[in-house]
Design goal:
Layout lengths: L6 E5 L4 E5 L44 H9 L41 H12 L67 H14 L12 H9 L4 E5 L2 H27 L6 H22 L6 E5 L1 H8 L11 E7 L7 H12 L8 E7 L4 H24 L6 H5 L14 H25 L26 E7 L14 E6 L10 H16 L4 E6 L3 E2 L4 H9 L8 E5 L3 E3 L12 H12 L11 E4 H4 L19 H15 L9 H11 L2 H5 L3 H7 L12 H11 L23 H11 L3 E4 L7 E4 L4 H19 L17 H12 L4 H17 L9 H25 L3 H15 L2 H14 L31 H24 L4 H17 L1 H8 L7 H21 L11 H4 L4
Parallel strand pairs: 5-6, 5-9, 6-8, 11-14, 12-15
Antiparallel strand pairs: 1-2, 1-7, 3-4, 7-8, 9-13, 10-15, 11-13
Cofactor: Mn(2+); Zn(2+)
Keywords: Acetylation, Cell membrane, Cell wall biogenesis/degradation, Cellulose biosynthesis, Glycosyltransferase, Manganese, Membrane, Metal-binding, Transferase, Transmembrane, Transmembrane helix, Zinc, Zinc-finger
Catalytic activity: [(1->4)-beta-D-glucosyl](n) + UDP-alpha-D-glucose = [(1->4)-beta-D-glucosyl](n+1) + UDP + H(+)
Length: 1032
C-alpha cells in the first residue's frame, strides 16, 4: 500500500477506475516481480549457478544477498515477512545460532525430510503469533536431541505458552495438561540409562538438592519468562462486605414490592376507580421494569490488566514485535456539524498512540464525500509528521493537541529534558498555524461554487454529488512516504468514501462501518479493529494495549468478541444538569453485565475481533470424554441422541469458527456469505490477519474500490449475519446482541486513566434529540425479528440475565406511557379532590415506608460498591423522568407509525460544535416539539398545587391531612423536572414564548375539560339524600 500515490476513485459496476494525483507528486509503485530487494531497492542478483538468489525458502520474500548477510550478522536473523530464521546458504559465513542446524554447507538437502516434519512446520509457520518458547538445558544444542514431537517446529520465544488453537496440532505428542507450562525438550532417553541418570543429576544440581549450592541458580531471564507466562489480566471481585448487603436489600425489596402490589390490588378506591386502576397498572409496569434493570447487576466485577506482562511476552528485546495488528475506524458524515478540527484531533491521537507503528492502520470513513474532509485530512497528515515524534519523545498525555494545550495542569511535571519547554512552545505555534489552515478550509467550504469543487490539478471533485458518486480511496500515510520529521515510520492513514448511487440502500452508519471492514480486510487485514466516533479521541495512549491484555490472553482471549471501554466526556458543566456523563449506566450497569456474559456494545470505544464480526462462532472447548454406558434404557436413549448429534454436524449449538470455514470451503459458499471478491474472501480465512504477499499495491487498491461499491452487499449476508447489523438506527445494540447469541463473550475495561474522551450535546434540545434517536432504535429492535424477548433461544448460548439486560434495552422507551400517566395523576388528584389510594391504616402504611426505604437503600448500596457519587445518581433519576415523558414518548409514537403506517423519520447528526465561552452551549435554546409534553406536565402540576392549597384553605383544617399525600406526589414530579425548567429559562431566566403558549394552552384546556367531564370519578344518579334529605 503506497502513501501519496493519489486519490483512487472508481465504480466496480461501471468498470471505472481513475487515479487523481492532485497536488502531490506521483510516486511509482514498487516493482514486485521478485527482481528488486524489498529492503534496499537494489536488484537481487543471481547465484553462482545463474539462478535467482532466494534468501528465504519458506515464503520467497525478495531480499538481496548483502541485505541477507547483514540481517544474519547484525539483525534479528529472521525473514522480514514470515519471521522464519534465515538458514545458512551455500557460501555464507557462519553466525551464532547456525550450530543448531545440521552441518550441511548448502541447501541441497532441505527437502530431505519426512512428511510428518513438513506437516508440523507448515502448521507452526502459519501462525503469526503465540509461539512456544522452549527452555534449553546445557546440552540441548544439537538438533538430534529434540524429541520427535517437536521436530521441525521453528518456535520463536515469544509467549512462553501454547496458543489454544494450536493444541490440536500438537495433540499427537503432548496432552492437554501440558498447556500453559514451561516445557524443556530433553533428549529421548529412557529412564534407567546412563544418559537419563546424568540428566537427573543435572536437574537436582540446579534445584539445589544435590551437591554444592549453585550461586547462579537464579536466572533473571528465567524469572522474566515466568512473569511473562502469567495471565495478562484478572478479575477483581468486589468486596463481599459491599456486595452481600446489596443483594440482601434487593431480595428484601422484591418481597416488599410483592406485598405492596398485593395490598394495592386488594384495596381499590371505589369512588375513583379509574384513577386507582391507572395507578396500579403503572406500578405493576414499574415493578417489571425494575426487575429487568436490577437483576443483571447481580454479579458486578472489576478487572485489572498487566501491561508489563504484555510487553514481556510479545515485545522481547532483539526479537520481532509480536503484538497483533489493529485497524482503527473513524466515521464522519457532515464536516459542518462534525468540525474537521475535532476529527483531526481524534486522528492525531490515533497516529501518536503507544503501539508499534507498523501494527496500526487508521481508516477514515467520509460518508458525506466532502472535499473539506479530504483536504483537512491532508493537512492533518502533514502536521502528524511533527506532532507524533513530539508526543513519543516526551510521553505526553493526552495526545490530542487541542486537549493537551488547553489542559489546566502543570505541564512541566515529571519532565526532565531541558529542551522540552522550547519544543513545546514551537509545537504549540505549529498547532496554532495548523488550526488557522483548517479554519480557512472550513470558511472556504461555506459557499459551494456553482460548478462544484475543483481539485488543485483542475480535476472536478468526484464527490460533488453526495448522493451519486464513485468510491474513493486515498492513502495519506503508509509504508513508504509515511515518515515523520525524524525519519521514523508513521502508522497508515487511509481516506475512504464508499460509492453511492440512487436506488441503493446504503444503511447509514452501519453500511459505512461494513465498508471499512471490507476495505481494511483487503489492504491490511488486522485481526482486531477499534471503532471511534470522530469526536472521541484517545485520552490514554496505552488504550490499545489495555484491550490486547484481554484479546491476546491465551486463556480467555479466543472467546472474547470485543472489549468495550466506558464513554467519558469533556466540556460538561460540573453539575451535569442533563446527566450527559451517564455514569450510572457506565459504572454500574456495565460492570454488572461484565460479570455475566459481557457488556453491550455502545457504538464507540470498542475493540473487536475481526473473526467475530465475520459471523463465526467462538472456538469450542475441549470435548469431554464419552461415558461408558451400561446398556440400560436411559443410557441407550442418551447414546442414540449422541449419534444423531454427531450425524447432524457434531454441535447442536452451531458450528465453531473452524467448522464454519470447513463448511464454506466444502460448499463454496464464500460469495453468498462475503461477496464476490476473491482477495477479501481469502483474508477472511486468515484468523491471525495479514495480507497475501503476492498481491501488488495496485491490485489491492483496485480490489478495495470493488468491495466499497454500492452493489457489493447484494445477495450476501452483510448486515444480516456479518459486520454491523442493519434494521435499526442503533446498530450497535443489534451487533453486540448477535455476537452474544453466537456464544461469544465481551469484556468491560475501565483503566484508571480514561481510554477515550468525547464531546456530548450539553444543551437541552440536543440532548433530548440524542435520547430520542437511541430510544427509537430500541423500539425498532423490539418490533423486529431480532427482539431479545424471542430471538436466540435456539442455540441457547445467551445467558438469561444477559437476555434480561437486552430485553430492558428494547422496552425501556415504553415506560414513557405509564410514566406520563403517573406524573399527571398528582395534579388530577389535586384538581378533583380524589386520591389513588383509600385511607390507610397504621399497618398498611408500613408497606409504603418499607418500600421507600428499600428504594433508597438499594441506591445507596449501589453507590457504595460502584463509586458513583450521589449527585450523579440523582441527576440520572431526574433525567429518567425528563427523557421518559419527552424523548421516549415520541420514540414510541414514531416507532408505531413506522411499523404500522410505514412513516420513516430522518435524523440529523448531533452537532459537535463547541462554544468559545465556557459552557455557552449549555444555555443555548433550540426549539423542538420534545419540549411540549414535560412543560405541560410541569405547568399542570403547578396548577394542581395551587388549586389544592386554595381548596384546603377554603375548607378548613380537616382538609389539610389528605392534602399532604397529594402534595407529596406532585412535588415529586416538580423536583424531578427542575433541571428541565432551568433549561427552559436559559441564561436570561426567560422561557421562550412559543413553549409558554403551547404549554399553558394545553394545560388549561386539559384542566377545564377534566373538571367538566370528571371521567375517573364514580357518578351517582339522582339527588344525594345525605346532603338534602328525603324531601329534596
Amino acid at each position: 500500500m503506497e502513501a501519496s500515490a493519489g486519490l483512487v476513485a472508481g465504480s466496480h459496476n461501471r468498470n471505472e477506475l481513475v487515479v487523481i494525483h492532485g497536488h502531490e507528486e506521483h510516486k511509482p509503485l514498487k516493482n514486485l516481480d521478485g527482481q528488486v530487494c524489498e529492503i534496499c531497492g537494489d536488484e537481487i542478483g543471481l547465484t553462482v549457478e545463474g539462478d535467482l538468489f532466494v534468501a528465504c525458502n519458506e515464503c520467497g520474500f525478495p531480499v538481496c544477498r548483502p541485505c541477507y548477510e547483514y540481517e544474519r550478522r547484525e539483525g534479528s536473523q529472521q525473514c522480514p515477512q514470515c519471521k522464519t530464521r534465515y538458514k545458512r546458504l551455500k557460501g555464507s559465513p557462519r553466525v551464532e545460532g547456525d550450530e543448531d542446524e545440521e552441518d550441511v554447507d548448502d541447501i541441497e538437502h532441505e527437502f530431505n525430510i519426512d512428511d510428518e516434519q513438513n506437516k508440523h512446520r507448515n502448521i507452526a509457520e502459519s501462525m503469526l503469533y503465540g509461539k512456544m518458547s522452549y527452555g534449553r538445558g546445557p546440552e540441548d544444542d544439537e538438533s538430534s536431541q529434540i524429541p520427535t514431537g517437536l521436530a521441525g517446529i521453528r518456535s520463536r520465544p515469544v509467549s512462553g505458552e501454547f496458543p489454544v488453537g494450536s493444541s490440536l496440532a500438537y495433540g499427537e505428542h503432548m496432552s492437554n495438561s501440558s498447556l500453559h507450562k514451561r516445557v524443556h525438550p530433553y533428549p529421548t532417553s529412557e529412564p534407567g540409562s546412563a544418559r537419563w541418570n546424568e540428566r537427573m543429576d543435572d536437574w537436582k544440581m540446579q534445584q539445589g538438592n544435590l551437591g554444592p549450592e549453585n550461586d547462579d541458580a537464579y536466572d533473571p531471564d528465567m524469572a522474566m519468562l515466568d512473569e511473562a507466562r502469567q495471565p495478562l489480566s484478572r478479575k477483581v471481585p468486589i468486596a463481599s462486605s459491599k456486595l452481600n448487603p446489596y443483594r440482601m436489600v434487593i431480595v428484601a425489596r422484591l418481597v416488599i414490592l410483592a406485598f405492596f402490589l398485593r395490598y394495592r390490588i386488594m384495596n381499590p378506591v371505589h369512588d375513583a376507580i379509574g384513577l386507582w386502576l391507572t395507578s396500579v397498572i403503572c406500578e405493576i409496569w414499574f415493578a417489571f421494569s425494575w426487575i429487568l434493570d436490577q437483576f443483571p447487576k447481580w454479579f458486578p466485577i472489576d478487572r485489572e490488566t498487566y501491561l508489563d506482562r504484555l510487553s514481556l511476552r510479545f515485545e522481547r528485546e532483539g526479537e520481532p514485535n509480536m503484538l497483533a495488528s489493529v485497524d482503527i475506524f473513524v466515521s464522519t458524515v457532515d464536516p459542518l456539524k462534525e468540525p474537521p478540527l475535532v476529527t483531526a484531533n481524534t486522528i492525531l491521537s490515533i497516529l501518536a498512540v503507544d503501539y508499534p507503528v507498523d501494527k496500526i492502520s487508521c481508516y477514515i470513513s467520509d460518508d458525506g464525500a466532502s472535499m473539506l474532509t479530504f483536504e483537512a485530512l491532508s493537512q492533518t497528515a502533514e502536521f502528524a509528521r511533527k506532532w507524533v515524534p513530539f508526543c513519543k519523545k516526551f510521553a505526553i498525555e493526552p495526545r490530542a493537541p487541542e486537549m493537551y494545550f488547553t489542559l489546566k495542569v502543570d505541564y512541566l511535571k515529571d519532565k526532565v529534558q531541558p529542551t522540552f519547554v522550547k519544543e513545546r512552545r514551537a509545537m504549540k505555534r505549529e498547532y496554532e498555524e495548523f488550526k488557522v489552515r483548517v479554519n480557512a478550509l472550513v470558511a472556504k467550504a461555506q459557499k459551494v461554487p456553482l460548478e462544484g469543487w475543483i481539485m488543485q490539478d483542475g480535476t472536478p471533485w468526484p464527490g460533488n454529488n453526495t448522493k451519486d458518486h464513485p468510491g474513493m480511496i486515498q492513502v495519506f500515510l503508509g509504508q513508504s512516504g509515511g515518515h515523520d520529521t525524524e525519519g521514523n515510520e508513521l502508522p497508515r492513514l487511509v481516506y475512504v468514501s464508499r460509492e453511492k448511487r440512487p436506488g441503493f440502500a446504503h444503511h447509514k452508519k452501519a453500511g459505512a462501518m461494513n465498508a471499512l471492514v471490507r476495505v481494511s480486510g483487503v489492504l491490511t487485514n488486522a485481526p482486531f479493529m477499534l471503532n471511534l466516533d470522530c469526536d472521541h479521541y484517545i485520552n490514554n495512549s496505552k488504550a490499545v494495549r489495555e484491550a490486547m491484555c484481554f484479546l491476546m490472553d491465551p486463556q480467555i482471549g479466543r472467546k472474547v468478541c470485543y472489549v468495550q471501554f466506558p464513554q467519558r466526556f469533556d466540556g460538561i458543566d460540573r453539575h451535569d444538569r442533563y446527566a450527559n456523563r451517564n455514569t450510572v449506566f457506565f459504572d454500574i450497569n456495565m460492570k454488572g453485565l461484565d460479570g455475566i456474559q459481557g457488556p453491550v456494545y455502545v457504538g464507540t470505544g470498542c475493540v473487536f475481533r475481526r473473526q467475530a464480526l465475520y459471523g463465526y462462532e467462538p472456538p469450542k472447548g475441549p470435548k469431554r470424554p464419552k461415558m461408558v454406558t451400561c446398556g440400560c434404557c436411559p443410557c441407550f436413549g442418551r447414546r442414540r441422541k449422541d449419534r444423531k448429534h454427531s450425524k447432524d454436524g457434531g454441535n447442536a449449538n452451531g458450528p465453531s469458527l473452524e467448522d464454519d470455514k470447513e463448511f464454506l470451503m466444502s460448499n463454496m459458499n464464500f460469495e453468498k456469505k462475503f461477496g464476490q471478491s476473491a482477495i477479501f474472501v481469502t483474508s477472511t480465512l486468515m484468523e491471525q490477519g495479514g495480507v497475501p504477499p503476492s498481491s501488488s499495491p495496485a491490485a489491492l487498491l483496485k480490489e478495495a474500490i470493488h468491495v466499497i461499491s454500492c452493489g457489493y452487499e447484494d445477495k450476501t449476508e452483510w448486515g444480516s449475519e456479518l459486520g454491523w447489523i442493519y434494521g435499526s438506527i442503533t446498530e450497535d445494540i443489534l451487533t453486540g446482541f448477535k455476537m452474544h447469541c453466537r456464544g461469544w463473550r465481551s469484556i468491560y475495561c475501565m483503566p484508571k486513566l480514561p481510554a477515550f474522551k468525547g464531546s456530548a450535546p450539553i444543551n437541552l434540545s440536543d440532548r433530548l434529540n440524542q435520547v430520542l434517536r437511541w430510544a427509537l432504535g430500541s423500539v425498532e429492535i423490539f418490533f423486529s425479528h431480532h427482539c431479545p424477548a424471542w430471538y436466540g433461544f435456539k442455540g441457547g448460548k445467551l445467558r438469561w440475565l444477559e437476555r434480561f439486560a437486552y430485553v430492558n434495552t428494547t422496552i425501556y422507551p415504553f415506560t414513557s406511557l405509564p410514566l406520563l400517566a403517573y406524573c399527571s395523576l398528582p395534579a388530577i388528584c389535586l384538581l378533583t379532590d380524589k386520591f389513588i389510594m383509600p385511607p390507610i391504616s397504621t399497618f398498611a402504611s408500613l408497606f409504603f415506608i418499607a418500600l421507600f426505604l428499600s428504594i433508597f437503600a438499594t441506591g445507596i448500596l449501589e453507590l457504595r460498591w460502584s463509586g458513583v457519587s450521589i449527585e450523579e445518581w440523582w441527576r440520572n433519576e431526574q433525567f429518567w423522568v425528563i427523557g421518559g415523558i419527552s424523548a421516549h414518548l415520541f420514540a414510541v409514537i414514531q416507532g408505531l407509525l413506522k411499523v404500522l403506517a410505514g412513516i420513516d423519520t430522518n435524523f440529523t447528526v448531533t452537532s459537535k460544535t463547541t462554544d468559545d465561552e465556557d459552557f455557552g452551549e449549555l444555555y443555548a435554546f433550540k426549539w423542538t416539539t420534545l419540549l411540549i409534553p414535560p412543560t405541560t406536565v410541569l405547568i399542570f402540576n403547578l396548577v394542581g398545587v395551587v388549586a389544592g392549597i386554595s381548596d384546603a384553605i377554603n375548607n378548613g383544617y380537616q382538609s389539610w391531612g389528605p392534602l399532604f399525600g397529594k402534595l407529596f406526589f406532585s412535588f415529586w414530579v416538580i423536583v424531578h423536572l427542575y433541571p428541565f425548567l432551568k433549561g427552559l429559562m436559559g441564561r436570561q431566566n426567560r422561557t421562550p414564548t412559543i413553549v409558554v403558549i403551547w404549554s399553558v394552552l394545553l394545560a388549561s384546556i386539559f384542566s377545564l375539560l377534566w373538571v367538566r367531564i370528571d371521567p375517573f370519578v364514580l357518578k351517582t344518579k339522582g339527588p344525594d339524600t345525605k346532603m338534602c334529605g328525603i324531601n329534596c
